[in-house]
Amino acid sequence: MAVAFEQSETKKNLMRAFAGESQARNRYTFAASQAKKTGMYVIDLLFRYTADQEKEHAEIFYNHLKKAAGENIAVDGSYPVDIAEDLVSLLRKAQHNEYEEFDPVYKSFGEIAMQEGFPEIASSFQQIARIEKLHGDRFGRFAEQLEKGTLFVSEVSTRWICLNCGAVLDAKEAPLVCPVCHHDRGYFIRFELSPFETAGAC
Predict the structure, then answer these.
(1) What is the pTM of this model?
(2) pLDDT digits over 62-109, tens only?
(3) What would the 3-class secondary structure string for the chain be?
């Protein structure tokens, strides 16, 4: 049954989602700074890369609120305080929150939007939910590598790329220092996981 946007739960859910994405962006920026201080540039980049995507999600939800321009929307909600000393904990907390956004939060928001007669908004919730699942998977993958001590070590020869200068090396371990730019190991990542590269590139 169609519902007027002004009286809809969807309007409130959009503001809840905007608030959640905005806070996630800040949490990830804070986590990135913490990673950078410990010399883990690759984790710094991971958090900042995801933070930028959360900012885009916030903007999508915010733009759906154009009909409410000029008003204040009061919503209730609970948001995580993800403060931890170690990077694995920060990654695992981020993973948990992304999975929670995927299901049940955005899944239910999408269902409500569809029921209230807002298919375009429902589609945004559904599509962004799938992205949040990917975010959770990515955070979990890096957390697991840190836990297992395999972030910079492989059982077989692997291509590594320096995120500072772009040097690519084949070895079982990332070098302690980049032979080209002399930045430390924290700048290396498996080539296939690096932004903008593909496994088949030279």
Answers:
(1) 0.91
(2) 999 999 999 999 998 889 999 999 999 999 999 999 999 999 999 999
(3) CCCCHHHCHHHHHHHHHHHHHHHHHHHHHHHHHHHHHCCCHHHHHHHHHHHHHHHHHHHHHHHCCHHHCCCCCCCCCCCCCCCCCCHHHHHHHHHHHHHHHHHHHHHHHHHHHHHCCCHHHHHHHHHHHHHHHHHHHHHHHHHHHHHHCCCCEEEEEEEEEECCCCCEEEEEECCCECCCCCCEHHHEEEHHHCCCCCCCCC
